[in-house]
């Protein structure tokens, strides 16, 4: 919590300089802006009113993003929520309330909803990714046992035998969690070691910036003096020649001086393409451990642990039911449980199979594989707006094409669990363009009549097999 507070304070100082706003207007917009949670790719801020949320999200979002990234050192998506109940999350929970309760109970529900928001807010202030992703909180099963053991060994004995440690597995299976767990462990037991954690993307951005600012010496110095270097989502290095070149030298220099390197990727080294042979050999030269999709037993254990930690009472029959239904991705399981928590706290309702089904249909539309889902998004959006897939992926900016592109990006973000960079790859756009597309659609939903319905109809169409 202190950590978030410190970041909030540092950010305000940064914003004072960047916005050059007068004190009164600064206090008005930023005075009550608080960072409530921070993960490796997203920062959520809260502000008291809808108006402030709107102004901050339209006029100041970029400066907040830049200021925050300067402080934390990696790129994040920014979300601003207002405490008077108009954000995404509130919307989905309120629709549950209004569907499930009659008019006279509505006021009571709204009151409850506010209380719940407060609980959630308190919760997220206390528990951030920075302290939650530990070995203790990592539930072990056959599918991740080896990877966990490898990470624990490196955390206990960094810079010894296992170098580099290369963890791979599909998205949402716990790789980033394990990298953070290693960091926590080392920070606690070996505070003398200098640890650097970067996503591949922010490593690349930093490199490009250093070339632009002619500060490559400082960049090299920074990385080559690390004792432990962790690079997450290293698969994004594919095809980036100058980053591969620089990373090769960083890698070799650290490796030769016996420093620990840990890499995580959504695929094994041989499937990262194009990748120079010398880097591939380096990646394969240490210990490779994979995380596999969770077995039924592991899913059950995770559902139990996460629901218990939120105080949700689930019968073992329902736990089994969820484990059957959510059968590949742990991130999805978490998503469903968090929504379940919100919905049941609000309505005070018992959890039933129907509630679970309703939530799964929001979080996990039809368990359709992501690639198939993307194809369907593209074809539905193209049909609706009368454009072609090439148009969507092209640089064309005519209004209709740009709108179709924003909608396709927005829906991809909403109904798949692809990361922003991965969505960027599909649409041949960088990560900040993806965020701005999403923001545009969100703004249209708020300001244009029938726009939300249009999008929801498209989503419905995409989800029907
Ligand atoms: P990846 O980096 O592989 O895409 P993450 O590490 O981000 O996946 O995991 C997604 C979510 O699932 C995180 O919130 C993480 O804490 C949770 N998670 C993944 N594996 C486990 C596990 N074995 N035990 C508990 N939580 C897990
Ligand atoms: Mg990850």
Quick structural summary:
The chain contains 22 helices and eight strands. With 465 residues, the protein is an alpha/beta fold.
Structure report:
- There is one protein chain.
- The protein is 62% helix and 9% strand.
- It is of the alpha/beta class.
- The chain folds into four domains: 2-130, GMP Synthetase, Chain A, domain 3, CATH 3.30.300; 133-290, Rossmann fold (3-Layer(aba) Sandwich); 297-361, Orthogonal Bundle (Helicase, Ruva Protein, domain 3); 370-464, DnaA protein, C-terminal DNA-binding domain (Chromosomal Replication Initiator Protein Dnaa, Chain: A).
- The strands form two sheets. The chain has a five-stranded parallel β-sheet with strand order 5-6-7-4-8, sandwiched between helices. The chain has a three-stranded mixed β-sheet with strand order 1-2-3, sandwiched between helices.
- α11 links the parallel β6 (228-232) and β7.
- α9 (200-212) runs antiparallel to α10.
- The protein is globular and about 65 Å long.
- Bound molecules: adenosine-5'-diphosphate and magnesium ion.
- Residues 175-176, 232 line the site of magnesium ion.
- Adenosine-5'-diphosphate (ADP) is lined by residues 133, 137-139, 144, 169, 171-177, 302, 330-331, 334.
